Amino acid sequence: MKKNIILIIVTLISLVACKSKFEDLSFEGGSADFTTFVSVGNSLTAGYADGALYTSGQEYSYPAQLAKQFRLAGANTVFNQPMMNDDNGGVTFLNSVKIEEPKMILGTSTDCKGVSGLGPIRIDMAPTTRAEDNIYASKGPFHNIGVPGSKVIHVDAPGYGDITNLLARKSNPYYVRMASASDATMIEDAVNLNATFFSLWIGNNDVLGYATTGGVGVDPLTSQADFTAAYTNAITKLTANGAKGVVANIPNVTSIPYFTTVPTDPIALDLASSLSLTSFFNKIGNYVDTAFGAGKGAQYRITYVQGDNPFLIKVPATSDNPLGWRQIKSDELVLLTIPQDSIKCTGYGVFDSRQPFDPFTITIEELVKRVNPLQTQHVLTLEEIEKIRVATDGFNATISSLAASKGLALADMHTNMANIKNNGLVFNEVEYKTDFISGGTFSFDGVHPTKRGYALITNYFIDAINAKYGSTVPKVNANTLPGTVLP
Amino acid sequence: MKKWIGAFVGIGLAASSFAGGFQVALQGQKQIGMAHIGVPFKLDAASIYFNPGALPMLDKKFSASVGVSPIFSSVAFQNSEYNYNSSSDNPVGTPFSVYFNYNIKEKLSLGIGVYTPFGSSAKWDDDWEGRYLIQNIALKAFFIQPTIGYKINDNIGIGAGFIYATGSVAINRALPLPVGDGTATVGLDAKATGMGGNFGIYADVAEKFHLGLTYKTKIEMKSKDGTVEMKNVPSTLASSFPAANKFSTTLNLPGSVNFGVGYDVSEKLNIAVEFNYVLWSAYDSLIFDFENNTSSLEDSRNPRLYENTLAFRIGAQYELNDKLTPRVGFYYDPSPIQEDYFSPETPNMNNLGFTAGLSYMPSERFSIDVSFLYIHGLKRTATYSPSNFGGDYKTNAFIPGIGLTYQF
Predict the structure, then answer these.
(1) For residue B3, what pLDDT is reported?
(2) Is B9 buried (19+), middle (13-18) or exposed (0-12) by CB count in 10 A?
């Protein structure tokens, strides 16, 4: 009897080996064929991050991540990228002159006041990638035709890959090194692959170029007509062989830390400084009333307070605003690249404090001259933000209508990035935000995503593809990718 | 001026549960064999747990019972949207129980029991997809219950036990930072104590019917000096996440109302049903109050929002001869966890329990009791929405058990 009991117990314990288990998953491509996948776009397609294109960034470019997921869905996707020479990035041209900077890392720098702090700094490494070395013959053809800096008007422009145009900056060093021929275009190189599936994310630089230069006009917004013509041409050529694909639209600049990190009111004043500044600006107001007409001085009688105060910004001088500056509005944007030392040590954005002066004897002309508003290239005013919004909305309308008419999937990055900006994105408990550095989504340049940020973008592409083509391509676990490196 | 640079805010530290659905229904070997029904039975000193009202009704003056039930359990997890496939490798848990009862007078019984009614252990891979919610958890609760019973008449007994509960919990999880190399972890360790009661009434009705009704109170487990240990936090963030910290918390173990009916089909065959209404809604949220708060480490309030459940059990025993009594049973024990608040730290399904047992009595005083319980957790598709983490879960558990009863 006891033996039987022991036998029963042993049998029961052996059952314990049966662990609960699921069947293996399988994934489908639906009506899409991912066999030959080509990706056309700008820096966001190339895998650019931290102010540079470098190899480990390229490995996590969104199209490289997409290709990897396509392979899980049974496609034998080959995806060849024009890899940089090193993991630091940067490009040289002619006698090793650096024409593209290497990447930024988080490092210690000392400011004008001698205070050390942690912030993004360029890595101190000479680039080893040379614009002269075209790698098409040895390493091509390339499936990632993402060219940092390219606008929609460049993608089918002959000469954009011609090295002889590089000195005049009429061509692009990243395309120069990967183009199949000096007169080739990005679209031609893509079409030559006879792809079964493509992605196109272009148009960001058509607004970003204007925005990141503060709207001064050196890099104007692309006109709606030029955009529509160039985008229509690109889509028509990419779909000519019947390829299916996905396109993405353009996020708002207000979703990007480059424009949202620096507050409009960082001028920290103690009580004494705030009182003397208030009295200076009161004098300036009185002077303007006298010199330009009663009532016009009021706008300059700014009351400074102990604590945080808004910047002054430069605006065009008019008869209503004869001095050509005003206080920044709280919904205007200050660019990330604003020189911080000038703010800290020269009174940039308020009042030039470098030369000592006697506040009782200083002339009014001298006071007016010392007013030190932010230069227009460091600020996007409400008028400029509105121009950018109108252009972005117009370009996105073009993208939507072409996606619809060609039957392509549309990844709505405009909405998606705004959602992350407004609500954050909780991914398996980890919350991604658009805050500079700490948010985990954007890299040290404030414009381009981190590797994990590119994973979130990849997932938005996959959502759009699966919805359109009935595929079940699995998404990427963003948390497993390397995060922003912190000391 | 760099104030907009290193400001790492809002990385709240969500925390983990103590009792979450892991009531351990393994308190007596004979009872386990019949679907863990004990409320309408007067079998042995295990009634200290099941129904203190049955203790003065035991037909033996002295009854002692001990048992142990090692739990071999596993959880499988899958998410087809992200191609997640994981399973937890749960260390063997060993709930045990020890009971003594002595009917010191004809109408009065005194007893004491030590048992483990709540507990859980789960070990997921350190790098599994849900690591920011849980990597591993070990929780134990011991109840010590001195008990008094009074026999009102030959048919009705009442009893009451005072419960002193002591427990411990250890939880490890990855620190949910959106930046860094992903190796930062946080370990939470705490001991907790609480008090409660277990009240019961037992009645033999009309010869063949036996009724039992019990009420177990909610127990607030309070912990004051829990330790927090952070590992591999980047030095940039060290001030936000102090390496050593303390926390206090209160964890509510649910009470229950239990009702059972036994029926003697014959002298040898007894069948019974039992209902357990478990007051899980006591487990509304888990609040961690950190001694040292920072802008990134605020006190955390984690919704659990458990719902009350009604479990149903049916079982039978048959006295084959004076040496052997086999038993069988089945129960349905629904999950208290809502679909949107389902965390992998204590994944609890709607459980089906299949039980079998056997008592062997080499002598009149001595019984060897074995039991076997197979728990099949019905597949569940669920999410812990505050973490936006979910998928399909499946569980099962194999629980052999052995015990000894000595009574005279």
Answers:
(1) 35
(2) middle
SS3 (DSSP) at A57: helix
Q: Return the number of other C-beta atoms located less than 10 Å from residue A78's C-beta.
A: 11
Which of B107, B129, B117, B128 has its CA nearest to residue B38? B117
Eight-state DSSP code of residue A148: T
What pLDDT is attached to residue B218? 94
Cα separation, B85 vs A92, whole angstroms: 46
Q: Which helix (H) or strand (E) holds A189?
A: helix A186-191
Rounded CA separation A193/A141 (Å): 8
pLDDT, residue A344, reads 87
Report, as ranges of residue numbers, the positions in chain A whose pLDDT lies below 70.
1-18
Determine which helix (DSSP H) or strand (DSSP E) holds A67, and give its type and residue range.
helix A62-72
* Environment class of A383 (CB within 10 Å of its CB; exposed 0-12, middle 13-18, buried 19+): exposed
Structure tokens of A359? 């506040």
In this prediction, residue A43 carries a pLDDT of: 97
pTM flag (> 0.80): yes
Q: Which CATH architecture has domain A37-261+384-480?
A: 3-Layer(aba) Sandwich (3.40)
The total number of residues shown for chain B amounts to 408
Distance CA B160, CA A427 (A): 49
Closest partner residue to A426 (CB to CB) among B76, B370, B388 is B388
Where do the domains of chain A lie?
37-261+384-480, 267-334+339-373
CA atoms within 13 A on the CB side of B165: 29
What pLDDT, on a 0 to 100 scale, did the predictor assign at position B25? Answer: 77
Q: Where are the beta strands (DSSP E) in A29-173?
A: 37-41, 91-93, 97-100, 104-110, 116-122, 129-130, 144-146
For B151: left if phi > 0, alpha if psi spans -120 to 50, otherwise beta; the answer is beta
Closest CA to B402 of B375, B372, B374, B363: B372
Which tens digit of pLDDT belongs to each residue from B347-401?
888 999 999 999 999 999 999 999 999 999 999 999 999 999 999 999 888 999 9
* pLDDT value of residue B92: 79
- Choose the mutation target among A5, A9, A12 for the interface with B, i.e. most B CBs under 10 Å: A12
Which residue shows structure tokens 């792809």? A195
Residue with tokens 């954005």: A349
Chain centroid offset of residue B47 CA = 18
For B394, the token pair is 């499946």
Chain B from 360 to 399: CB within 8 A of any A CB:
360, 368, 370, 372, 374, 377, 386-389, 392, 394-396, 398
Q: Do the chains contact at A431 and B11, CB–CB below 8 Å?
A: yes
Look at residues A172, A171, A170, A121 and name the one whose alpha carbon lies nearest to residue A148. A172
Q: Which residues of chain B have pLDDT under 50?
A: 1-21
What pLDDT sits at residue B22?
Answer: 55
β-strand partners of B270: B264, B317
